[in-house]
Design brief:
It contains two helices and no strands. With 48 residues, it is mainly α.
Length: 48
C-alpha cells in the first residue's frame, strides 16, 4: 500500500490516535531578526 492511499482522518482512526492542539511557543518572547538573516531568507525564498 502506498502513502497516498491513506488520509489523515483514516490513519488517525485506524491507529486509535488523538489530536491535541496546544500553544507550544506561547512563552517564547519575540526576537528581532538581523538584516543579514532576513536577506538570506529572502534570497532562499526567491531562489527558484
Amino acid at each position: 500500500m502506498e502513502f497516498r492511499d491513506f488520509s489523515f482522518p483514516e490513519v488517525q482512526t485506524s491507529l486509535g490516535l488523538t489530536l491535541a492542539e496546544d500553544d507550544l511557543f506561547g512563552g517564547v518572547a519575540p526576537l528581532e531578526l538581523t538584516a543579514e538573516f532576513a536577506e538570506r531568507v529572502r534570497f532562499g525564498a526567491s531562489w527558484r
